[in-house]
Amino acid sequence: MIKQEIPAVELQKRLDRFQEVLRSKDIDGALLVQRVDTMYFTGTAQDLHVYIPNIGKPMILAYRDLERARKECPWEIMPLTGISKLPQLIGAAGHPVPKILGLEYDVLPVARFEQYRKTFAATKFVDISYALRLVRAVKSEWEIAQIATACDIYSKLLDYASTILRPGVTEIELESLLGVKARLLGVEPIVRLRSFCGEIHFGGVTAGARAAVPTNFDGPTGGLGPSWAYPIGPSHTLIQAGEPVVMDFALAFNGYYADVTRMLVIGELSEKFRHAYAISLEIEERIRQALVPGRPAGEVYDEILAWVQKETPFAENFMGCGSSQVRFVAHGIGLELDELPIICRGAREILQPGMVIAVEPKFFFPGEGVIGVEDDLVIGDAKGGRFLSSSSREVVKILP
After folding, report:
1. CATH number given to 8-136
2. Which CATH superfamily is domain 138-398 in?
3. Average pLDDT, the chain
4. Helical segments of the chain, H only
5. Model-level pTM?
């Protein structure tokens, strides 16, 4: 597949939206250093400092690689040889040294923050991270197209999985084969998370009771993992007939993630799992219909949780179990896997057209397994979300 550079007009629109936010908050400028944030405004993943004034052109400063950044980014790029020179460079570019400067408090290391505080001694710092994440939460048609392509790759992987899942294969073997196929189809070998200490690989192939082993990741599935040092995802255990197999993949294409889950089984699922899966599909449809512009994300969560508690027999198993139960049913995706909005308790974000959300109603049965579905939807109009995921939601059954 041919990967596209981010169009210059796309970058300009992003800049315009963010500068409007800066002006509305009376912030003179923002200094961005987190990789995904700088990628978003420049179209290059090189090591950068990006200063965005509330009006005018951005200032792009590269540690490395300067020449590659210049080839990939349409903005003018200058070398950065030291943090202490930032005020001087800002002034040389025609901007006043900011009196109020926005920083990415949610991801900025304290040591780096202290360097900035010494460098900008007369400047007041404010947290710009939440406002920036809200800007990034609304996707353009170009961004949505990248996510849709990643969803199409998942469909091809699901077809391939049906040809290689067989008695005698281990979880890790199955995922490894799918991983090679994914790379050949254009998937990038990294999962970017904003959360502190966030660690996850691109795929989660888990089966039976192993899938229902809770772990450190804030999600409704777990996995034994290969060792104590990485206690999540597939293990070296053989997949047995009748075990629900969870194929939960985060696939990056051109920087943008699809996050999709489908279920497979060698033989047949039990009646309990079939029932729970049918309920998960109904929940997903209810969430899709509820993803209407203007609604608070927390309101959608409360509505869905109330229905699950009242109308299903598995409320105690929804999105985890006991202390491992998570308090969300969907999350934003884009250049990171954990973007805004999150459909969770108390979420105050207002749903807007263009937000792309991974909806993942799942049931977690300790000692038995996990069953559920996950699809990526884009918010549009009063009819609710539109599916970007294209693969069948039927459980893939393999003859034993």
Report:
1. 3.40.350.10
2. Creatinase/methionine aminopeptidase superfamily (3.90.230.10)
3. 96
4. 8-24, 35-42, 66-72, 86-92, 110-119, 129-137, 141-164, 171-184, 208-211, 271-290, 297-311
5. 0.96
